[in-house]
Amino acid sequence: MQAVILVGGKATRLLPLTNNTPKAIVPVLNRPLLEHVIRHLAGHRIEDIILAQGHLAQLIEGYLGNGSRFGVSLSYVVEDTPLGTAGALKNAAGYLDDTFLMLNGDVFTDLDITAMLEFHRQQKAMATIALTPVDDPTSYGLVETTPENRVARFLEKPGWNEVTTNMINAGTYVLEKAVLAQIPLRTKVSIEREVFPRLLTGHQPVYAFLSSAYWIDIGTPEKYLQLHRDLLSGKCRNCLLAPTEEVTIGENSHIHPSARIRGPVIIGADCTIGENVALNGPLAIGDGAIIREDSIIEDSVIWQNSRLGARVSLKSSILADNCHLNEGSSAENVVLGDNVTIAGGCKLEPGSRIGAGTTVSASP
């Protein structure tokens, strides 16, 4: 069985985290997002995977390689200009042999793919769309279905007066290769807004696979942070890389005996946690991090090689690679890109988004 994963977007909503890092490989529990996705597919015996790429493609291929260390075979196709979800799929058509899976690369889910494939075959569907319930469907594409779960209508980002269901397109599809004939070459086309409605108009069998599996689109820093809270708290039971202990500590990390750690917390390799540091989960700390004495860190995600000086306070925030928060600085609900430096004693404004390479001077 084959799968195509769309990983070509520029992820502007996730800035500044994606200044230098493609969304597909932002760390999730200190492993790239795509590694989680690929391992989940491999667990359902999907081992031939094509990555449809665009922005920062070399970084993705550089990390994942041929996929052998994850038990899969990876191929790569790159679009020169953005082609939309269907255009990117058409760009990968030469790799596809038969029925295949298609996924949006910014979704984290423990969807039962094996059950979805079986449902698709039983219905003899041309396309099967995974649906998931949400509290507020007005920001998504609604999918109305018949009692037999055949798709009846698509409704993109409806107003509340138009809402007839809370089931939305979850970004995972099983497709027959014949669907590719509906997509022109080298043309920007949306599978959600153009191809699927066209299949309905042509009376093709399009079905919905309803699921209550864990599902989140990590398109914003807020959703990215929420994903970590959920995984560390065990809300995604089938996460193959989720920690099994309240506190997980990587190799060669040194934790001062006076440090206080309240899980769930995951600490990467080669980290240093200083005297009287308080770590309050949910919290993910990447490899090579240094946190000096008397600092208090809670409900945050810290990427690799960041340094936090003495008496730093950090809460509900995300730090990308190589950030430096100097002594006595504090931040709550902030997002820092790579290589950001915060001066000693500086108190960042809540809600701040600070781009890669910025130096923030001390507060007056």
Summed up, what is this model?
With 364 residues, this protein is an alpha/beta fold.
Question: How would you describe the overall organization of this protein?
Answer:
The chain has 364 residues and is an alpha/beta fold. The protein is 17% helix and 32% strand. The protein is built from six helices and 30 strands. It has helices at residues 33-43, 57-64, 84-91, 113-123, 191-201, 221-232, and strands spanning 2-7, 27-28, 31-32, 48-53, 73-78, 100-104, 107-109, 127-133, 141-145, 151-156, 167-175, 206-210, 215-217, 247-249, 254-255, 260-262, 265-267, 272-273, 278-285, 290-291, 296-302, 307-308, 313-315, 318-319, 324-325, 330-332, 335-336, 341-342, 353-354, 359-360. Strands 14, 16, 17, 19, 21, 23, 24, 26, 27 and 29 form a ten-stranded parallel beta sheet that branches. Strands 5-4-1-6-11-8-12 form a seven-stranded mixed beta sheet, sandwiched between helices. A seven-stranded parallel beta sheet has the order 15-18-20-22-25-28-30, with no helix packed on it. Strand 2 (27-28) and strand 3 form a beta hairpin. The radius of gyration is 22 Å and the shape is elongated.
Envelope shape: elongated
Q: Quote the average pLDDT.
A: 92
Radius of gyration: 22 Å
Number of strands: 30
What are the segments in which pLDDT stays under 50 over at least 5 consecutive residues?
Answer: none
Give the strand content.
25-35%
Number of alpha- plus pi-helical segments: 6
Gap from first CA to last CA: 60 Å
Protein structure class = alpha/beta
